[in-house]
Amino acid sequence: MSKKYVTRIFLVDDDPIITRFIKISLEQNDLYDVHVFENGKDFLNNLHLAPDIVIIDYNLPDMSGVEILQRIKEINPDIRTILLSGQEKLEVVVEAYNKGVNNYIIKNENVVFELNNSLRNLIDSTNLRKEVIELREQIIDRNRYNAILGESKPVLQVLKLIQKVENTNLITLITGESGTGKEVVAASIHYNSPRSRKPFVPVNMAAIPVDLIESELFGHEKGAFTGATYKRIGKFEEANDGTIFLDEIGEMPLDLQAKLLRVLQDSKITRVGSNKEIKLDIRVIAATNKDLGQRVREGKFREDLMYRLQGFLIHLPPLRERGNDIIILAKSFLAAFCKSNKMPFKTISNGAAERMLRHTWPGNVRELKSVIERAALLSDSQQIETDDILFTESGSNAA
Does residue 216 contact residue 238 with C-beta atoms inside 8 Å? Predict the structure, then answer.
């Protein structure tokens, strides 16, 4: 017997009587998880919750059901859709099917009966897709993620999350301590995505002077401000059709966060000194080593922006929780350092390995790389010994 899955259903309709009637009727099936939205904006703001099936009213107060269909197909074409309408005109039905709707149901006394029949048919295909995804996630193609070293359980979990999100356009937030490899993960998402042949543009928000951030991100026109002697293309425009990686997003000044939120919502930018909007097709990945929730409570980060960024979360484990990955990484760094500096290849003694495994690595992978490169220079033999492994005073607790 096939595995039974709970089907998440979003119902988008502004008629409270109809929505209540449909919701109560559908929820008699324990495998239906029904959520109701009264308008298109609220629905689209929650689309990151990944419904399996969306039931949409043709006429909504803020946009048409056909418009919503188009947005769904742009964001996640795997979502199955049903359009409810009082319109029986052939041209309306044809337009809906041309936009990719899976079923078109007329609102009448048989609407719940028709809905249940349609749902049963659509659920067979959604459940099959879930089974395929589960089977695929059990097998990780390590060749596609060779930049992410390690075989520990936390790292394999990160790879599974990358597999889930890489083929979507969901805004992705990567969290983790400094030095855990957030840019490496962001690059792996991009280069395994349909945008892989397009630009990957990393931006370190903490490294840009505050008064230049807006120009750096969105560009400027000649004469927009003192010193603007030529037109400049910003990082967002540079990344168009590809991926922009906003590292250390928690450091972004509060006054610019509203502008970034608008860009994320509308996929449009305006260069400094211009009134012309530029439409973008871009994937956004952000990263932070800060607790954004705490930054919100401190009044340093917008709550609405935080939720917008959390379309899909990937948390990177600190190195101290990755066990033998420390030695795998150390050997890789050592081999690369010896090769680039034309030094004889060196190995790591058991004592040196044990010393590294006892260390807490406050600087994570970045610290490990520095320790290994220093050890390669200090070592007078073909093997790195315990005494060659030196830590900075602030992070040293190894015997």
Answer: no
SS3 213: helix
- The answer for 342, left when phi > 0, alpha when psi is -120 to 50, beta otherwise, is left
Burial of 92 from C-beta contacts in 10 A (0-12 / 13-18 / 19+): middle
Q: Kindly state which CATH superfamily the domain 7-137 is placed in.
A: Response regulator (3.40.50.2300)
Is 142-317 a CATH 3.40.50.300 domain? Answer: yes
- In whole angstroms, what is the distance from residue 378 CA to residue 312 CA? 43
Per-residue pLDDT reduced to its tens digit, 231-281: 888 999 999 999 999 999 999 999 899 999 999 999 999 888 888 899 999
Per-residue pLDDT of 191-216, as tens digits, reads 999 999 999 999 999 999 888 898 99
Place of tokens 């050890």: 375
Determine what percent of the chain is predicted with pLDDT higher than 70.
95
Q: Which two tokens stand for residue 376?
A: 């390669």
Does the pLDDT value for residue 353 go beyond 90? yes
Spatial separation of the C-alpha atoms in residues 397 and 376, rounded to whole Å: 21
Q: What is the 3-state secondary structure (H, E, C) of 26-75?
A: HCCCCCEEEEEECCHHHHHHCHHHCCCEEEEECECCCCEHHHHHHHHHHH
Distance CA 349, CA 99 (A): 63
CA 250 – CA 270 distance, rounded (Å): 23
CATH number listed for the domain at residues 320-395: 1.10.8.60
Q: Which tokens go with 221?
A: 């026109």
Same fold, 7-137 and 320-395: no
Domain definitions of the chain by residue range: 7-137, 142-317, 320-395
pLDDT tens per residue, range 140-197:
666 788 889 998 989 999 998 999 999 999 999 999 999 999 999 999 999 999 999 9
